[in-house]
Specification:
Elements lengths: L2 H10 L1 H20 L5 E10 L6 H6 L20 H10 L2 H9 L6 E4 L6 E8 L2 H23 L11 E6 L5 E2 L1 H39 L1 H19 L11 H5 L6 H4 L3 H9 L12
Antiparallel strand pairs: 1-3, 1-4, 1-5, 2-3
Amino acid sequence: MDPVAVIRTLWHHKLIVLPVLLVTALAALYVYTLAPRSYEAKATYAIVNPKIPTAAELEKNPELNTLNSDNPYLRSADSSLIAQVVGTRLSDDATGDALLRDGLSTDFTVQRPPASFLIEISAVSSSKEKAVATVKALGTRLESDLLAIQTVNGANERYLYTSLMIAAPDNATEQFSSRLRSLIVVLVAGVVLTFGAVSIARGLESSRLRIRSASPEGDRQKKARRRHQKDQDDLPVGGKLEELTIQDVLNPAEADQFFAANAPLAKTLKTSSNGKTPVKETSA
């Protein structure tokens, strides 16, 4: 596609292109400055191993032997299993339903780095306060789920994993990427609308030209142009009257067969000018 031809076509339909571009610019300005923002809050929790009594402690304090130590996750060969289970429960649909009932954001993610005891929680909302409140609610649910899955057999708290907040959701940061994505969508839509409007305008223009050519007036104009072209083609070589001077008429070149064949024309012009030589610059 020739860029010059594209620009020429756009300029030809500027009465359509300029309003569309103006609307696109205003929409982009609104999206970038006045459209709703997106804020993200994050928190990171660590799952801490329980402090299991040693043999010396059991011997020194026999009462520890009476504590219920039946925590099913202590018997797992994979020590990170507890973090996997908590992350899975936190990502369940029931969590989203609970947040929705509390009027919080349902746009949240729960991530867990591989083979680690860390759980990362993030929430996105249109306000900072709502994003922070959502992450705090998810943290509270994490702690309750962590306790519930370990006490199914009534294990004592001495044998339970606990959660430790590493990064608190004190503030939410604005996501400029979401605003940029919205801006790109508006600009792309404006470009598509511009070329679509130009295509429609060109189609209508072509239709009008075909209708005009098919009318009787259009046929007469075509016939007149063909007659004019035929008259031009019938003239001898060098005899097409585009622009000639009086000198060319009075002293025709050998190739000017038309004026050479009408030599008396020079005498007539001289007689009309009382024998004076006409000015060379005068055009006939």
